[in-house]
Amino acid sequence: MQTQKDEANSRWGRSASMSQDDFMRKDACLVVDEQDQLTGTENKYNCHRFTPQQPRGKLHRAFSVFLFDLKGRLLLQQRAASKITFPKVWTNTCCSHPLSGFQPSEIDTPEDVATGTVQGIKRAAIRKLEHELGIPSTQVPIEKFKFLTRLHYWAADTITHGPTSEWGEHEIDYVLFLQVPSTSLSIKPNPDEVDATQFVTLPELQRLMHPSSGLLWSPWFKIIAERFLPQWWADLSTTLTTNVHFDPITIHRFDPPVEHMGGGGSAGPFLGSPPPPLAAAALAAATSNGNGYRDNSKKQGAYGKVKSHSESVFSQLLRIDEVFCALRVKFAHPFPEVDMGQKSNEDVRFCNYILGKVSRSFAAVIRQLPKGLCLETVVFYLVLRALDTVEDDMEAFVADPSVKIQHLRSFYQVALEDPSWTLKGVGKGDEARLLEEFNRVVRVFKSLAPEMQEVIGDITRRMGNGMADFVDKDLGQGTVGVKEYDLYCHYVAGLVGEGLTRMFASSGFERADLATTSEELSNSMGLFLQKTNIIRDYLEDFVDGRAFWPQEVWKLYAPSYPGTSPSLGAFAAPENRKKGLACLDHLVTNALTHVPHCLDYMSRLKTTEIFRFCAIPQVMAIATLEKVYHNPDVFTGVVKIRKGLACKLILEASTMGELFACFENFAGKIAEKARAQQQEDGGREGGMAGETVKLCEEIKKLCSGQGGSEERRRRGCAGKQGTYLAVVLTIVIVPLLAWFVRGGAEGGFLGRLSDGPAGLLGTDYVRMAILVVASLVVTFGLSYMVVNIWAPQEGKWKEMGRTVGRSSGGKKLK
């Protein structure tokens, strides 16, 4: 055993006679601040001392290795009795520190963390696996390690050294996973580091960690095991090969259990541990309790793993017109629903029900389509949603991706032809139920007119084959080029536009040649919507391991570091935010190039319900692009437009005038943002911001020439009228109520009213009449000013401001 210790020490340039105390004083840890920024170095001894001067020691970097064999068992170690901190405790495979002074370096930069490379941490892990467990570096190649996330925790070693222990840990811990064949591992524990080792399954680990076992466990491992490990361990292949659980942004912070508080500095809580974000128990109940964590029973992929950025309730309430629109959509049901036969047919009733579950946003717009097209569109949507669920599931087919490919390629033949076909174990929540009861959709599909069945079957075949082509592609860093980006969008959205157009023509509600003359236009409609979603969902897609931002674009902006390849994930790091915003603006501009085709297509539709059905997703998309343009929130979550604004757009998308007004409005706002970027860049006319301005001005010109400006003015006036009306009524009603309440307290108006109308005095009626007339006069007077004075002058004032701004070289007037 002594020979093993000597070999382990000498292999890393240490004297065979070095003790644990020698290591504590010689090894130089990397001292960091709470944001994991390197501030210096300090020996282990001083870092781990808990004293009144430093109650929690010095915060430093560490790593925790979780090594699994091919059976999915985790290798545990029991720390040696001779260890100074936390001796005899069981813990994960290897826990230690990257150190200063080693070559190659064990120091990582923020860029290394953002990209997930962390070569320094991984080198330190390889060094310590050999030092502690005798595992040669050749058996744990550096490329096998998967960095997942970081934890900031502290704990006093009160179990070993008593309540006033001078020793403890205070670390930002990097979690590393890897999987290697146990038969190829040469485990020869160093007796000064490790007392015992054991491979365990998750159920075995949970039994061992039960208090009745009497075993001691390291506080950092208990945090990871209770809060994260079950989720990461559930599907090792996904954890190791995708970015589903990769989170380079968050530093999870946890205070220790009560038994590990105190120590030589009498330290108490200071990190304020949040509820466990990914613990198994939390997964079962957290989201349903409304605490914001992901609920795997409802959505699949990375949905819900990243936060959503939405405006505050106060911000929404300030927009009175949007509040009115939201109330109208919620309670007035502005679009009459067509009877699809759901009352007499259980399968149709199921289709109608599940539509509302898997498409809450646009279910009402689909249901308002005319009879002869409504049920057909419902079935078309559900068929493609089922196909999309198969494509999106990143867990069900991990063991054999060829099964997913087969499902996608044969879906149109098998799922649409066999009335008894269903699929279980794929998708989550309502999407899973759709597949589990898909035979009910098929029976309705079989009842449709032959020409409708032909369209749905053809689009399903082509989309399924297109999706299958992308299953084998490595999309961890996005599509390769813009051409591939466009092709993917064509498969998953452009084909939808083509299919719907063919159905519009076949139904007789639109002219027969619409499908043959508008194929390119309908494809652009789909690409515009899909690109908007891809741009908005940057972080969600990257975390899910299936990103679509084209490398041909983002590599123009991504930072590069010596010895590493550029990474799409680098934009999530705050220090790369400017580069990320430039890339984001580039992609928004690319999406805007489809707008002229979209407007051309919309101008060819003649049926109001069909127009509305197509227009609402388009106005939502242009509003979303305006929201995400140069918005740093895209890199920290999912950006969403206000619900009130969405409702307003739904209600104002029934005519070409309204559509042109909407596109002109949001294109103008994007242009203003792009001009601001030009000013920040020193007033350069060219560049991507210049391209954006040029394109937006072309869109505005196209819209204004078709009556968009007049419609915008009308809608703006109506919005201001509504706002003034609400304000005036509030100003009048509040004092009126106060006056009458006060009168009631004195036995006045309210007291007389309680006796019935006969109890009111003549002066009561006179006062009320005067207040009503005054309210109406003031309201209509303000409305007249808005329509005839303010609105016309407002445009002139804005144009004057732009003219003065240009004449002053873009500088602000003082």
Structural class call reads alpha/beta
List the strand order in the largest sheet: 6-3-8-7-10
Helical percentage: 40-55%
Number of strands: 12
Strand content: 5-15%
Supply Rg.
32 Å
Low-pLDDT ranges: 1-16, 273-303, 791-814
- Distance between the amino and carboxyl termini: 81 Å
The overall average pLDDT, rounded, is 83
Largest sheet: 5 strands, mixed
Q: Please work out how many helical segments DSSP would assign.
A: 34
Q: Give the CA-based shape.
A: globular
Give a written overview of the molecule.
With 814 residues, this protein is an alpha/beta fold. The protein is built from 34 helices and 12 strands. The strands form 4 sheets. A 5-stranded mixed beta sheet has the order 6-3-8-7-10, with helices on both faces. A 3-stranded antiparallel beta sheet has the order 5-4-9. Strands 1-2 form a two-stranded antiparallel sheet. Strand 1 and strand 2 form a beta hairpin. Helix 23 runs antiparallel to helix 26 and helix 30 packs across helix 32. The longest helix is centred in the C-terminal third of the chain and has 46 residues. It starts with a helix and ends in a 7-residue tail after the last helix. The relative contact order is 0.06.
